[in-house]
Amino acid sequence: MNNNSNKQILLPIWLALAIGAGIIIGAQFVDKPIQTKNSGSAVEKMREVLLSIDNNYVDSVDVNYLVEEGIKGMLKELDPHTSYIPGKELNRVNASLKGSYDGIGIEFDVINDTIMVVKPSKGGPSSAAGIQIGDRIISVNGEPVVGIEIDSKGVTSRLLGDKGSEVELVIYRPVDKAELSFKIKRGSIHQSTVDAYYMVDESTGYIKLSRFGSTSHKEIVDALAALSNLGMKKVVLDLQSNPGGYLHAAEKITDEFIKEDRIIVSQKGKMGKYNDEFKSTSEGTFEEQPVIVLVDEYSASASEIVAGALQDNDRALIVGRRSFGKGLVQMPISLTDGSELRLTIARYYTPSGRSIQKSYENGNTEYAHDISDRYSNGEFYNADSIHFSDSVEFETIGGRTVYGGGGIMPDYFVPMDTTQTGSLYSKLLSKGVLRTFAINYFVANNDLLLGTTLESYAADFAWNNARVASIKTIATQLEVEFTEKEFEASKLWIQTYTKAEIARLAWGGNAFYELMNPVTNKAFQKSLTLFEVAAKMQESN
Fold first, then answer.
1. For the CA atoms of the chain, what is the radius of gyration?
2. Whole-angstrom distance, CA of residue 242 vs CA of residue 429
3. Residue 217 burial (CB < 10 Å; 0-12/13-18/19+)?
4. Which of 126, 240, 241, 301 is catalytic?
5. Helix H segments across 232-280?
6. Residue 280 and residue 286: Cα distance in Å, rounded?
7. Which of these is catalytic: 326, 358, 427, 499?
8. What pLDDT band is residue 420 in, cutting at 50, 70 and 90?
9. What's the pLDDT tens digit per position in 290-348?
10. 301 a catalytic residue
11. Which residues contact 322 (CB under 8 A, 6 or more apart)?
12. Which of 5, 241, 330, 490 is catalytic?
């Protein structure tokens, strides 16, 4: 599957994707069945119109296409998170939440119309077949895929398939200057939602959760147990840029951190049948130790359930920037042709009674522009740019003031690092320049890297003129303009990300975040100074 970790650390790339993340991945999925009812004359009218077009329209027309577009048109008149997923898209959309998918097990990137293998999944079919980091996919099942306009969705649709089925690949391996053919039998590939967990120091743990999938609770429990065995006494839970997922996963993860019989979240619909309240049980594994949760403007839905519950119960300090503001619950409804309607059935409320759904009364277009408007208004750099009315003030269980009206406002605001928004860094990242450099470096130094440790690599890897020149060369090849002034402005992020990406290829996700966090993750850095405050709040809870 395509890796999105590089997208999770950069504002300009995410601005265009924020609303999509909220609609598709950020849904609060519930399991109760929904009963449809006949709408009488309105349904008959739709049927009559379609039959009239199909039987009498002057030109040939695809009625199925009209139905698909008609459904989308209807849903645009509802809230921004009610959505329709065509049957052919459903497996791909759900793959990131299910915890596994059927495919060949590769992480890839599309760079300049070329499908580059970033990393085969460890123990997966591609790795077993001999696919390597840096390989370029030329054809899939005899269909050329190089030099054509193709996006990640197009690649995924070709590589996913039923477990046990075969896919034929032709790849070009630059290091050998050779084309190679492979027949790979698809298998079930585990897809972790915990991107990293490691010990920051002898008593502080760090866990990065990228989304809330079906296996997320178990992954969090396993991470907590592993870090506790290493001496963890306090933890940073990083939900920055986590767009959400399954409601049940959010509830169970929250339950690990709070005492028994505390409200986690409630939901209220138009009718009482969708009203519900979820409370903690006695099964938590990390209920006494200090916790800090990191959020930002792309932390949505399930992330906001966790952050809101821990904040309202005075169980964790929230650090970062105001979260997305998605507080609607979607019911997945399977349609007869294999497609799916995700219909909003309720709003959710944090334990203090906050609805943190931001307004969509001015339409979906303005709603989609909310994140960019926040950026333009200076909210990402100055907490004083955020204004709440008295009507959205609430109190935590210990009497602290918290706010509704659109997202979770952190207890400690951390402005965005201005170097993150450097235009050159944005372009180098989005065009694949930095990833190409990292892959080329890894391939050329594979034996050396795998023969050393992360600590030695981190200490020994240094930027020199030759390495900067190599990035410039790749930038030119990928048609990215490179100036010294822009490079100096973005140098910290460019060099740190590239070094961390090389480490990820060699040692995995932990290595990436171990190198990135101390340099570029300002919310993480701030959190390490706040554990005394978090501990005092926990003691009084």
1. 24
2. 20
3. buried
4. 301
5. 247-255
6. 13
7. 326
8. low
9. 999 999 999 999 999 999 999 999 999 999 999 999 999 898 999 988 899 999 999 98
10. yes
11. 297, 374, 379, 386, 406, 407, 408, 409, 410
12. 330
